[in-house]
Amino acid sequence: MTSIYLPGNSWAHVLPASVKLLFVALMSLILFQAESLLLFIAALLLAVACYASLGNPGLKRLLGLKGLLYIGAIILAFHAWTGTMFEGVTMILRLAAMILLANFVSITTRMDDMLEAIQPMFRPLSWFGLSGRKPALGIALVLRFAPHMLEVYAALQEAYRARTGHRNSWRLIAPFALQSLRMSDNVAEALSARGSAGGMADHLQKPRKNTGNGQ
Amino acid sequence: MTDRSLVNIAFYAALIAALGLVPPVAIPFLGGVPITAQTLGVMLAGVMLGPVRGGLAVCLFLLIVALGAPFLSGGRGGLGVFMGPSVGFLIGWPVGAFVAGLIMRSTRDMPVLVAAAFAAAVGGIGIVYLFGIPGVSYMTGITLPQAALGSAIYIPGDLVKVGLAAIIAQTIARGLPSALVSRNGS
User: Fold this and answer.
1) Which domain CATH number covers B27?
2) What is the model's pTM?
3) What are the residue ranges of helices labelled H in chain A?
4) Tens digit of pLDDT for each residue in B140-186?
5) Mean pLDDT score of chain B, rounded to an integer?
6) Which of B12, B140, B167, B182 is the mutation pick for testing A, counting most A CBs within 10 A?
7) What sections of the protein cross the membrane (chain A) (predicted)?
8) Which of these, B44, B51, B47, B52, lies nearest to B12 by C-alpha position?
9) Which ipTM value was assigned to this complex?
10) Contact B44, B166 (CB under 8 A)
11) Total domains in the fold of chain B
12) Closest chain B residue to the Cα of A192, Cα to Cα
């Protein structure tokens, strides 16, 4: 539930995350500058070939994106309205190629590796005296908080149904907000008690892989 | 940045994620357009945390989505969503939260309910669409008025969320005033 990553050992999984990210950046630079229909068709075929190279699970992921067809149809309808069908088809092919390629990189790269690859982006934080690991801690907190919030809400819903027979009500908003906010208060206190997030700066130099707890 | 700030930022980023997991509601009298709860979280981040922390909360959420978490409504995530037609809206989210926070801060003498509704409407609708509509137009090649028309079907749902954001802010201001960070201290 916490990642769109597709486990596997394919050629795409083995490539370093930084290489794949550079590939996406390069492709988007090229495709958003270009106007050539042929190039877009080639890019789209390349993207489909990438998914196919992962075998059945890859193709299943490709089919999972068929909701995009619906969006494509709406875009095409707008273009038909202004009589720019050809431009519309071109734009849709470009969009589809970009989305599929970028998504392919995401499904073949673990979140940890992705974070590791963009870690240099956080280096400027240290200029302001902040630890570059703070984003990583923030991510770990979010990945823990989100399911907890759903649990809190589900518990409130269950109690409400037992009392009234109804499933949902706006009346649950207030207890949900207050309970989950109090939970975050406790976490903040616990974090300070354990030496606070600032203490993580000391570990910045150690090549320790500490981001995996988010998975 | 204190621990509490970091936890607050993570809290609202997680709230946006949790709201994305709530199944979309199709409201019949709005023509059955599916309404997702996600932008409610964006509005609340700005209203509750103020400009900087609110904006950072949305940025943290988008970072996690980019890393590959399927936290956007409909279970979408990864880099692909940033190549899609609605990328302008995603870029508008942190800016919208920032502006909502600014408004909350500069309207301290107004009642929370009124100020929050105003902040959520300007930040969560005005600013978000200001980025979103040109984004749709740029990514798909349709004209600006067409993009505006296509996006307008979501505005009634957004107005409902503005109302909810205001009520929630008011509720929290009463029940746990310290959590209304946007109005406490600097």
Assistant:
1) 1.10.1760.20
2) 0.90
3) 11-14, 17-33, 37-53, 56-63, 67-82, 85-107, 111-118, 134-164, 173-193
4) 999 999 999 989 988 988 999 999 999 999 999 998 888 898 888 54
5) 91
6) B140
7) 12-31, 37-55, 67-86, 92-111
8) B44
9) 0.90
10) no
11) 1
12) B3
